[in-house]
Amino acid sequence: MRQDLRATFTDRQYMLSEDYELFYYSDTHFTPTKLHHHSYYECYFFIKGDIDYYIDGISHSLLPNDIVIIPPGINHYAVSNDPDKVYQRIVFWISKNYYEYFRSMSEDVGYLFNLAKQEKIYVHHCDPITFNSLESKFFDLIQETKLEHYGKSFKISLLIAYLLLSMNRYVYEQNHPLEHATDDSLYSKLITYIEANVSEPITLDSLSKQFFVSKSYISHTFKQNQGISLHQFIQKRRLQIIKDSIAENSDIQESCLSCGFNDYSSFYRAFKREYGLSPKEYRDQITRAKNEHMKSQQ
Prior knowledge:
Elements: H1 2-5, E1 20-27, E2 41-48, E3 51-55, E4 58-61, E5 66-70, E6 76-80, E7 87-94, H2 96-105, H3 111-119, E8 123-125, H4 128-146, H5 152-175, H6 180-196, H7 204-211, H8 215-226, H9 230-247, H10 252-258, H11 264-275, H12 279-297
Antiparallel strand pairs: 1-7, 2-5, 2-7, 3-4, 3-6, 5-8
Helix pairs in contact: 4-5, 6-8
């Protein structure tokens, strides 16, 4: 799929579009661009290669998963140290007017750009999970631009807004570690959401989108509060609910399927691993205990 979205490299350094342009490049024998600057913002996502990026006269040796923000008027160019290596990157140009349109809706999309303009901080390193998430948003945007669907222009503006917010949120939270009270608040919200949706598919991806927090941060929050992973917590909670329903004489297979397990065999193994008994053995145990209790009351 990504091959289909790849663009042929162009050394054009001006925009044809009024609002934005987006390119996914993957090539070898990269010819360095000359020193230049733009009248628009450039967001550059470095995927792989051996590249030095010169910004405002300073060289930056890029690492995979780096984000580079270039404001208008800042001189820059890239040099490949090993032309035989595959050089992959995503380049996103956004005009000043289009950027201001999004910033007028929320100042939160301006954090990265202000760091670049005011403090000359141009390069930010992402953890692989977050970078892959951002990369996926870019590919969703590229794909949308190539299709003809109802509401296309509105969908594109939503994708760009979400992308800008995600970039800014990640870097802001890296630079401003959330206080413990906020951790508790997030953890409480996650627990409430899981309890309300325990029968539905719940993943780090879905929670990240729901709460606008990186997957790595959610994992850290669960490990810190529960001592186990998110997946382990959800499975334990589902097993406990099914265990309680078995004790109430509910159908075992129906309880299994209604509580988020896709098939009985995986549920059976998980239940026996958790409680040391099969579901039927547990039901028989509960039935015997109830019968013995009734006899003792006679």
